[in-house]
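Q: Sequence in, structure out?
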Amino acid sequence: MPVTDITQDVENRTLTIRAEFAAPVERVWALYADPRQLEKVWGPPEYPATFVDHELRPGTRSTYYMTSPEGERFGGYWDITGVEEPSGFTYDDGFANADLTPNPSLPVSHNVYAFAAGGPGTQATYTSTYDTAEDLQKVLDMGMEEGARSAIDQIDGFLARG
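A: Exactly. Output:
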């Protein structure tokens, strides 16, 4: 499986996930840059994503929703803050209301996604930082770690298909 390590650091309010992909950095980058590819792996497999807007360019907002097996939609957004193609990007990730506007009652994470050549393909490090330890705990209680692991673990299979 691609995920090699998950570290929760409550003191520093971070969740860091390390993964290895059997594909070159440019191919992993292409997955995150293309909304049609990204929606195949964003979120757990049983909660497929639909990206309504997505462009990896600083100052843009990506909006998406994930659909539960029962048909319920859960919205989210990314405010893209930095892009270094193909080595990574930064963004603020938040929960959204049904109309895909930010939901201020739920935590926002500040994310750094970094990709580097290594091993048989790409070493990826995903770091999410929260404003408070309580915010980190809230998303952990919501199943963020398990959801992220299952989402990232499906990337190699998707990349191998094409």
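The chain is about 25% helix and 40% strand.
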